[in-house]
Protein 1
Amino acid sequence: MTKFIVTLVLALIPTLFFAQSAFDKFEGREDITSVSVNKKTFEMLGEMKVDAKDSKDKKGNKDIAKYLGMADKIDNLKVLTTSSVKATAELKSTFESYRKKENLEQLMKVNDGGKNVQIYVKSGKTSSEAKEFLIFVEGGDKIGDETVLVSLVGDIDLKDIMNK
């Protein structure tokens, strides 16, 4: 019995370290366009140096370098888009089961001209912190309407964004 438990634990340990997102299965499909940006990319962005003359936006507001410094708190950004009815149904099904399984809280839901936008969040330790934002824009029922799923995972503190 002890050997069985040890074997089971050893078999499950890799899944803890190499966990996949529920949405990874959609990458590489011809009917879905996917963009995935990993933690290393955000860490590199956070290390970027910005010239003082380039550090403000066109109106002279906000220091861009401060925003770049927050980038290393982001673990992953995934964007999936499709205009396929079949792929939309699969994305929506996966989205619904994922948000329920992860206990994501709905922030907003908008229906505009047949296009449904849903925004969910996984809260962090405080009310201003978020571990994940999940956005699902379901295209209408017309051919060519595009469905978009955006997943942003990390330690995002809204106070940092507002105070920059």
Protein 2
Amino acid sequence: MTFDQTVPLESAQRLGEDLARDAADEVDELTVPARLMAEPEEHEHGPFVGDDLDRQARGAVGEEGRSGRVLHENQRYQEVTHDFVTSCASNETSTRSGGVTMPRVVVFNEFGGPDVMHIVEEPVVEPAAGEVRVRIEAFAVNPLDQMMRSGTSPATIPLPHARLGVEGTGVVDALGPEVTGLMVGDPVILTAIPDASVRGSYAEYTTVPASRILARPAGFTITEAAAIWVAYSTAYGALVEKARMRPGDHVLITAASGGVGRAAMQIANQIGAVPIAITRHTANKDDLIAAGAAAVIATDHVDVVEAVRHYTGGTGADIVLDVVMGPGQQDLLKAARPGGTLVAAGFLDPRPTPFPASTSLTIFSYRSFEHTLDTVVVNRMAAFLNAGVRLGALRPVIDKVFALDDVVEAHRHLEKGLHAGKIVVEV
């Protein structure tokens, strides 16, 4: 079992390929196989495509886009938007003339509910220097994906034709120039896709910098490998790198039934800390105890502050991991001991979070890309996770598995908020 880090390489500038003229002689349908990508914001990396291509993309489609015919009910749904042929999720395999299968990608052209997602047919993109192309076998569905799709993400998402997916697993399909230490066919996991709206993992293929993949842990199923990185790197980064969690620390974990919450409990136990789980439902108590919680606080039954004082002998929690935010954070601040630490690492509650009043706590706002784009920290994460996997202490819990054709249903399942563990889509 290994999480060995590959040789880090700088991401080179991606050049847009205009393949439409070549494809026009071969197919009858209107297609533009190349992805016109706008430069993502907020993350430090080299440009993938400059403003000129973005203007070309927007100029080609206009303000409202062009639409072709739509076939409803049991017929094949087909719509030409942004010069791409899109199809609804179906069991049919889309082909170009000559029977060559076109790989599929999940995209959305407007913000909204799960139904805004569609499956698009596109040729594979050749990896640039320092990049690899991965044939995706499965990807996990994360709250960040829901936020991007609905338009509530803190980062700007360029439309139309935005992609989704920040983690997944698959096999190396092609190597770009200057890539070493990898071979075609190597099973890998994707560790960080900061520009998910451009090259997200909701696809049959994607290209990523070689420094953004790790060897897939031996002994893991494909669904487990798809679900491990975001949850465990977030929990590790927040608790170990930020809060400096130590053996014996009482660690209060919100949304404990979710992927990050379960990962946090396992990581706390691996270090020797004492995880105290918070859940909204008393019915989850037995499951969370079995998952590794030393104690469970069900907010539909008990007061959080009083319960934490009870389980910590009156002192309060040493560390609070808050992946929910919102007004409820005020109770978490009261439940922490004087001089304790609160790490805010999520946005599950869309309501505003009141600014903390005068407090003796150390409060961190944590985003996983803060560490997952840092090769040195990723090496530490990989070593820690490798040890946990080898000892059997770390293992992702899978709630439900969907097929790619059912990706809309996977998002509906996520929005219900009743899942226990990770939601995975197999490609």
